[in-house]
Amino acid sequence: MSYQRVLLKLSGEALGDRDGHGIDPAAVGSIARQVARVARMGVETAIVVGGGNILRGATFSSNGVNRASADYMGMLATVINALALSNAIEEQGVETRVLTALEIRQVAEPFVRRRALAHLEKGRVVILAGGTGNPFFTTDTAAALRAAELGCEVLLKATKVDGVYTSDPKKDSRAQRFEELSYMQVLERQLKVMDGTAITLCMENHLPVVVFDLFEEGNIERVVKGEPLGTTIRNQS
């Protein structure tokens, strides 16, 4: 394996139907099978999942809802997704733990760094929900923060496209994919990979980010093994 401890960032839409809404058991099952195979290979795996398939705080607040309240609602949506993903992974025979930045003790453990590390070391897949626990921060920022806290070697950003492009490849046939970028290039070009806070956190902690296509079966395994998939973002010499 190229990596022994990874953090996988999943959007909420990845768990939804074709339009990215709700929770689609087939989509959740596909992700769970891939994650379970990686865990069985001995790779310590943490996951941060978004909640956009249920409710996106920033979008909801644009309709007049207080932004902080809307963001807390979005955090609760990530807990629902985490529980769905946890159940699906355990059906594959791999033990999981859901840890949340918001305390909901009846359904999940509160996030404590040492506890999360202990679960990872025991081979459990750790699913981190509730974002950072604070409004105004995205789940991308939560992923960068948790990856740094847990000493992960890479942040795997799973998306609907096979990397970072010069423009939207669905709208621009001339769009070109980058194989490698520096953090500063992402910030300067305002590439819509992750928000600026997340990229800056990764840069300050020398945490590489690999952006790859989640929807090709087996890609999570391939990227963990070090196969050249998608776009890698890191400090360039």
Task: Explain what this protein looks like in three dimensions.
The chain is α/β, with parallel strands linked by helices. It has eight helices and eleven strands. Strands 4-3-5-2-1-6-10-11-9 form a nine-stranded mixed beta sheet, with helices on both faces. α1 (25-40) crosses α3 (67-91) and α5 packs parallel to α7 (196-204). The model has no long low-confidence stretch (mean pLDDT 93).
Mean pLDDT: 93
Uncertain residue segments: none
Q: State the strand order across the main sheet.
A: 4-3-5-2-1-6-10-11-9
Computed over alpha carbons, the radius of gyration is 17 Å
- What's the name of the CATH homologous superfamily of the domain at 5-149? Acetylglutamate kinase-like
Instruction: State the CATH architecture of the domain at 5-149.
Output: 3-Layer(aba) Sandwich
Number of helices: 8
- Topology, number of strands: 11
Name of the CATH class of the domain at 5-149: Alpha Beta
Task: Estimate the global geometry from the Cα principal axes.
Answer: globular
Structural class: alpha/beta
Main beta-sheet annotation: 9 strands, mixed
Order of helices and strands: EHEHHEEHEHEEEEHHEHE
Percent of residues in β-strands: 15-25%
Offer a quick outline of the entry:
This protein is an alpha/beta fold. 37% of the residues lie in helices and 19% in strands.
List keywords for this structure.
237 residues; alpha/beta; Carbamate kinase; two-stranded antiparallel ribbon; 8 helices; 11 strands; globular
